[in-house]
Amino acid sequence: MNEEIQKRYYSIGEVAERFNVNTSLIRFWESEFDMLRPKKNKKGDRQFTQKDIECVQTIYHLVKEKGYTLQGAKDFMKAKSAKHSENAELITSLEKIKSFLAELRDKL
């Protein structure tokens, strides 16, 4: 099996290499984007999860490929996150309605 698939955490060097950027840029993005918060081990080394890497990928895409400013990328990502929260609340409400209607049907 591929080693990449089995890894749970990635070092900042591995993440930087994956996107062909300096580790200092990854650390800078971490300081600028609230949603990018990799865990740190006892030595203080950053441990990036797959979710963290997806966040870096989104930042990279917006800033490096699409030419967004940092503020523009932050705004885009916050709007995306807010939309996701709204969708989650909507799904929860719909599940409650579905459950209520199923109970009502069973009583008929």
UniProtKB/TrEMBL annotation:
Protein origin, superkingdom: Bacteria
Pfam families noted in UniProt: MerR_1 (PF13411)
Domain HTH merR-type residues, every copy: 9-79
InterPro entries linked to this entry: DNA-bd_dom_put_sf, MerR-type_HTH_dom, MerR_fam
UniProt keyword annotation of DNA-binding present: yes
A GO MF term: DNA binding
Protein name (Swiss-Prot/TrEMBL): MerR family transcriptional regulator
Keywords: DNA-binding
Organism: Rhodocytophaga rosea
UniProt-listed CDD domains: HTH_MlrA-like_sg2
